[in-house]
Automatic annotation (TrEMBL):
Presence of the UniProt keyword Acyltransferase in the record: no
Gene3D superfamilies: 3.40.50.2300
GO molecular function: phosphorelay response regulator activity; transcription cis-regulatory region binding
Keyword Transcription regulation in record: yes
Signal peptide bounds: none
CDD domains: REC_DC-like
Name recorded for this polypeptide: Response regulator
Organism superkingdom: Archaea
GO cellular component terms, semicolon-separated: cytosol; protein-DNA complex
GO biological process, one term: regulation of DNA-templated transcription
Length: 208
């Protein structure tokens, strides 16, 4: 069955499935394909999930909390999100308070109780990817603003200090007009660079 009403515009998004129940994993894979996403891979253990995540670099991971082996889904999620900074959605048939509390401490983007409904799965995946991409974009914008602002700070302070020194020297009669002209030309060049950096800052702030 195709879920035409759920077709995503995020057709480049890759989803990692971490589920040790084969039938559920196959159903999730079918749903993800029907939604228009790509399946980055399927894992049944925590360690395999980490290895696959590092290999395929998915945009999001669906992780069952209870997995076979020494590492459960919560621990695997912590390691995956810690290394790749990708959103994680937990899947579980258990909703006891202790498990939920432990899962929430990993800051997941979603928490789905089995049996998972297609509409709920689609909405949670779509919302999580958009939210994460918006967060990453905002981080990049802030980093760019910080870099440009840093570039502005030194030239402005240097020009200010140089002009103050120039005024002091003129007042004390230590400079002739030729010296003043050379220094002012240098300051004009520095201010030109400051103006360029300001335009770059403006473009960054108002870039859509």
């Amino acid at each position: 069955m195709k879920y035409e009403s759920y077709q995503s515009s995020l057709t480049d998004a890759k989803i990692l499935i971490v589920e040790d129940e084969v039938i559920i994993a196959m159903a999730l894979e079918d749903s993800i394909h029907d939604f228009g996403y790509l399946v980055a891979g399927k894992a049944t253990t925590g360690q395999r999930a980490i290895d696959l995540a590092m290999e395929t670099l998915p945009d999001l991971a669906l992780i069952d909390i209870r997995l076979d082996g020494e590492m459960d889904g919560i621990e695997a999620a912590e390691k995956i999100s810690g290394r790749l900074k990708i959103p994680v959605i937990f899947l579980t048939a258990y909703s006891d308070e202790e498990t939920l509390s432990r899962a929430i401490r990993t800051n997941p983007y979603g928490y789905l109780i089995k049996p998972i409904r297609p509409r709920e799965l689609y909405t949670t995946i779509e919302t999580s990817i958009y939210k994460h991409r918006a967060f990453v974009a905002e981080e990049a914008r802030v980093a760019c603003l910080s870099a440009v602002t840093t570039k502005l700070e030194n030239p402005v302070e240097q020009v200010k200090a140089s002009l103050e020194g120039l005024v002091s020297s003129i007042q004390k009669g230590k400079m002739d007009l030729d010296d003043v002209e050379i220094i002012l030309q240098a300051q004009a060049d520095d201010l030109g660079q400051v103006s360029k950096d300001l335009r770059e800052l403006n473009d960054t702030i108002f870039r859509v």
